[in-house]
Write a structure and sequence with these properties.
With 184 residues, this protein is of the alpha+beta class. It has three helices and four strands. It has a four-stranded antiparallel sheet with strand order 1-2-3-4. Strand 2 and strand 3 form a beta hairpin.
Length: 184
């Protein structure tokens, strides 16, 4: 038997739907509750996690870097001192930038990479060799603008001049990571 998809003679909208004004919202027991297999789909299927762009965004939110509260992180002073020394050595050409990749975000890495390229070009023009700078770490001023974030200024003294290095550390995945580094 072929089921008709036309409007029933009683004035109802679709087969199995209540007629206007009947007040009965329950489906007709004679009509199957599964969708018609020949009807065109009304919406796209739900995205499969991990296979679409939406899934990748959801995965990144769940598996991406997770913030960590300050109380769960170590004292930032040693990292600030060592990271400052390493950044100065990277800019001088005495250390590879890849050695810092674990301790900095991707944006900081790209920023430092640009600075390294410019510094190496300047050394090449002057025909200078890269050498380890002789520096001493001076005072470190640390502030905590919010939980899990530390902003610091580290004074660096060399033979010819003193510089300040501004660093912002964020607690991500149970460790400090530098989200901003500026050598002034």
């Amino acid at each position: 038997m072929i089921e008709s998809l036309q409007t029933p003679p009683d004035g109802g909208g679709t087969p199995g739907s209540p007629s206007p004004g009947s007040g009965d919202m329950s489906p007709d027991p004679a009509t199957p509750s599964t969708p018609d297999e020949h009807a065109a789909p009304t919406s796209s299927p739900a995205p499969i996690i991990g296979s679409t762009a939406l899934g990748r965004y959801l995965d990144d939110d769940f598996f991406g870097a997770q913030p960590t509260p300050t109380r769960s992180l170590p004292d930032p002073q040693p990292l600030l001192s060592n990271l400052t020394r390493c950044v100065m050595e990277v800019l001088a050409g005495a250390r590879e930038l890849d050695q810092l990749s674990r301790w900095v975000t991707d944006d900081v890495y790209r920023h430092l990479l640009k600075r390294v390229v410019l510094a190496s070009r300047a050394r090449a023009v002057k025909k200078q060799q890269a050498q380890r700078p002789t520096i001493s770490i001076g005072s470190i001023i640390v502030t905590e603008p919010r939980d899990g974030v530390v902003e610091a200024v580290v004074m660096v003294h060399s033979r010819s001049r003193s510089r300040a290095v501004a660093i912002r550390l964020e607690g991500l995945d149970n460790r400090w990571r530098a989200s901003s580094i500026n050598v002034l």
